[in-house]
Amino acid sequence: TQNSSYPTKNLLTSFFFQQTTMVVLSQPLVENFSHIKTCKHNNTTSDHVHTGNIIPVIDLLDPEANNLIIKACQEFGFFKVVNHGVSIETITKLENESINFFNLSQIEKDKAGPANPFGYGNKRIGSKGDVGWVEYLLFTTNPELNHNKSITIPGNSLLFWGLVKEYISAMRNMGCMVLEMIAEGLKIEPKNVLSRMLSDEKSDSCFRLNHYPPCPELLQALSGRNLIGFGEHTDPQVISVGRCNNTSGLQISLKDGTWISVPPDPYSFFINVGDSLQAMSNGRFMSVRHRVIADSLKARVSMVYFGGPPLSEKIAPLSCLMEEPNEKILYNEFTWSEYKMSAYKTRLGDNRLSLFEKNAQS
């Protein structure tokens, strides 16, 4: 099975309890656990988490896929794709290599860090104090940046980097395909008006491997609360293409603020609308807020490709989308570099786009 290469539950628990000093500063486990966010278990309030059986599933071979994607982007900002053409072998090989890395000793993993922002990160997310029950590897796909060359991957690094390159190529192709289907569904020309930002050789995309370790004793100590693996946020890029192993945890927020759980599917991919696409669509599409809840018994591994434009790309509502002459433009024009720098200065859950709204205070 996919979990066969994980260490035993006891070994994982022992190891990660040794690492909690980063989070709780060697103090009593529950008293100081405010360093990592929690959320309520299912209840009858607006925080109630429903089963995600309403999440759109798009067959990319369906003749109506274009229109179905448009509808999903408008209603959810999120959907699952099947018949995507990515081989299971490509997925499985990279997941196995990722598991091999995350199973290494902390000393060995730390050689690939610290994440600044690229490299190995452990519990600390970004530079503004956000933390989560997660460790990760973050890579850039921008050839003009040399950050990846400084990331040391123990073991068969040639195999690892080869698999990462192959996987990123497959994700870029899928992202471009989806964006071209969106352009066709919106009846805008040229067809590559969106996809060219990802296919550009200077595309500032990135790729992250996440590992959410199980910790049953810690979750039991939380007494009726869930442990946040990765706090709620939107993705600043154009779109994100994600995939996980067969462990639950991903949740998305609906327009009314209700959280729904996304059933895991290791053979399919999930597409997120990002902030940049929301701006370019003049608010027709919504950048989806999402988070990850830690699992009490099983490790979760996810792989996410964040499709971003070149740093100099100007982001603004597309004029060809303005259906009415008097349609209000919601966002000021900004470059991806400006937005990226702004995003780095905010907390994970902040509404980054609000700073670029037409009515925002200067």
From TrEMBL:
Keyword Metal-binding annotated: yes
EC nos: 1.14.11.13
Chemical reaction(s) catalysed: gibberellin A1 + 2-oxoglutarate + O2 = gibberellin A8 + succinate + CO2
Q: Which InterPro entries match?
A: DIOX_N, IPNS-like_FE2OG_OXY, IPNS-like_sf, Iron_ascorbate_oxido_reductase, Oxoglu/Fe-dep_dioxygenase_dom
Q: Which UniProt keywords apply?
A: Dioxygenase, Iron, Metal-binding, Oxidoreductase, Vitamin C
Q: Where is the Fe2OG dioxygenase domain?
A: 202-309
Pfam families named among the record's database cross-references: 2OG-FeII_Oxy (PF03171), DIOX_N (PF14226)
Is-annotated flag, keyword Iron? yes
Q: What class of enzyme is it?
A: oxidoreductase
Instruction: Give the signal peptide as a residue range, or say none if absent.
Output: none
Q: Name one GO molecular function term.
A: metal ion binding
Q: In which pathway does it act?
A: Plant hormone biosynthesis; gibberellin biosynthesis; Hormone biosynthesis
Query: Which Gene Ontology BP terms does the record give?
Result: coumarin biosynthetic process; gibberellin catabolic process; response to light stimulus; response to molecule of fungal origin
- Family membership: Belongs to the iron/ascorbate-dependent oxidoreductase family. GA2OX subfamily.
According to its UniProt entry, the function of this protein is described as: Catalyzes the 2-beta-hydroxylation of several biologically active gibberellins, leading to the homeostatic regulation of their endogenous level. Catabolism of gibberellins (GAs) plays a central role in plant development. Converts GA9/GA20 to GA51/GA29 and GA4/GA1 to GA34/GA8.
Protein name in UniProt = gibberellin 2beta-dioxygenase
Task: Please give the organism.
Answer: Solanum lycopersicum (Tomato)
Gene name for this UniProt entry: LOC101249786
